[in-house]
């Protein structure tokens, strides 16, 4: 299996600059899309088959060797049932439990940051409305959308200051 992976990585290394790093970073396998990994591991794996899957890889981050990043150890106590679920999910995703947990934490943080930014923008917009910025009334927007749905060509609603 390892020789097939190395051969597939050599093909990718010839096609995409920077992929040669994967030859020295086998732990990076968890970062590859499952369809590409399956193409590499299949018995009929060859350059054309891998090339068909290259478009799925282009968004992947470059491999960072652990010697380039300082990481401290953090211990997380997980109930046995959750550990088993993580192990199953990681196996299904083709990664390690560690990689799966790190990705899950990163996704949760990104979602929290997007939600926080969304709320901050909403508060700024509300403050602008309270400060006198023009807005569209829901009744005007709804009427406009209904006319569009009915096939009419109405004039867009006009923004005005909020009536208090």
TrEMBL record:
InterPro entries: Arc_rbn_hlx_hlx (IPR013321), Ribbon_hlx_hlx (IPR010985). GO terms for biological process: regulation of DNA-templated transcription. This is Uncharacterized protein.
């Amino acid at each position: 299996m390892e020789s097939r992976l190395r051969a597939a990585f050599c093909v990718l290394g010839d096609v995409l600059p920077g992929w040669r790093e994967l030859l020295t970073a086998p732990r990076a396998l968890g970062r590859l899309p499952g369809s590409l990994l399956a193409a590499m591991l299949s018995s009929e794996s060859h350059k054309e088959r891998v090339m068909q899957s290259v478009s799925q890889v282009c968004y992947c981050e470059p491999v960072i060797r652990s010697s380039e990043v300082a990481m401290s150890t953090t211990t997380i106590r997980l109930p046995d049932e959750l550990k088993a679920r993580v192990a199953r999910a990681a196996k299904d995703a083709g990664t390690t439990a560690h990689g799966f947990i790190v990705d899950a934490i990163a996704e949760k943080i990104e979602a929290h940051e997007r939600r926080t930014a969304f709320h901050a923008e909403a508060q700024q917009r509300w403050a602008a409305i309270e400060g006198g910025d023009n807005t569209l009334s829901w009744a005007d927007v709804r009427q406009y959308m209904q006319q569009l749905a009915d096939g009419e060509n109405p004039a867009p609603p006009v923004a005005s200051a909020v009536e208090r």
